[in-house]
Amino acid sequence: MNSLRARAHLLFGRRSHQSLAPHQHLSPAVANDLVISTVDENSGIAMLTMNRPPANSLSMEMNEAICDSIKTIEANAKIQSVILSSTNPKIFSAGLDVTELVSPDKDRLPRFWNSLQQVYIDLYGSRLATVAAIQGHAPAAGCFLAMACDYRVMSAGDINSDTKKKHVPTIGLNETQLGIAAPPWMGQLLVRTVGFRQAELALALGTLFPPEQALAVGLVDDIVPHQKAESGEDQLIDLLPSQIKDQALNPLLQRAYSQARIYAKIPPQARVASKMVTREEHIFRMIAKRDEDTQHFCGFVTQKAVQKNLSAYVEALKNKSAKK
Ligand SMILES: CC/C=C\C/C=C\C/C=C\CC/C=C/CC(=O)SCCNC(=O)CCNC(=O)[C@H](O)C(C)(C)COP(=O)(O)OP(=O)(O)OC[C@H]1O[C@@H](n2cnc3c(N)ncnc32)[C@H](O)[C@@H]1OP(=O)(O)O
Questions:
Q1: pLDDT above 90 covers what percent of the chain?
Q2: Which of 34, 57, 173, when mutated, tests ligand 1's pocket best, judged by the most ligand atoms within 8 Å of its CB?
Q3: Which of 24, 25, 78, 105 maximizes the CB count within 10 A of its CB?
Q4: Model ipTM?
């Protein structure tokens, strides 16, 4: 147990992305625009709210802001749990910013990929208990963000009161639909989350799961119907950033908050040591294979055929949005 604790300290007890990989980071002021951090030292709970309109897609700067925010919260010993949420009520995160992948700058591309690897190291390996509040869509790397957390609650969707149209969020690794493959470590994270056969099927088909199915395969831990709650807790209201202060009666955020509170009450050393049991080897593997993974990614993504698929995908995405 002692050696486990010592190893837990080694991996989780210090600022992982400072000590393990010296990549560039934005100043906190800029990072705070992309990811809003709020903390409540009394309850030991923090909230990281992704705020990169229109879709919280992951550019290099967004990845760096996520890592910076985790680092800042981890440095506060009073905080044990963090909720990862979004200012966009319909999109948790649209995954990688696809414009980073099309006709990429050859110097930026590896740095961009390093920044995503760093999110894996910092979020999946965080000492904090992490709860993803998935209000809206979470495709590809958006799903990865959720899987890197300890617990996932997802909205069951809602009905637009004006148009009466139903909004049903989806989650999954849909990369094959873009003509690319999920990176091996992201695919393996899906295997660890939903099991071998479900992951094998979902990876090949690029399945995006609606909430009920995501729950059935174990991709999320809970789904929450949208009906507004009758009352909100003051502590949650205080934690919400001004951009989403009006969400205090949102049952999804309330559910995420209650789960964060459950985690915050577990003795942290025990919680962190048990988190290591399942995550340590994967974090170390990423660190050991980081350069190889980056070369693999850059080589794959710059292939002519892959660029063709990605360009067509980005075009379709823009056309779809323009037609709205
Ligand atoms: C053995 C293996 C071998 C090799 C592998 C090695 C390495 C791996 C290689 C490559 C791996 C690369 C990994 C990629 C992972 C990813 O994350 S790829 C990104 C995948 N994301 C998506 O496919 C999502 C695309 N978006 C959507 O489907 C929809 O936008 C969404 C359902 C999220 C929301 O729909 P809706 O509410 O209708 O909004 P709009 O579609 O209208 O979008 C609003 C605006 O947002 C912009 N946008 C959306 N998504 C992205 C994005 N991912 N990046 C950048 N921008 C995005 C969209 O264009 C609209 O903008 P506009 O209004 O036009 O300004």
A1: 81
A2: 57
A3: 25
A4: 0.97
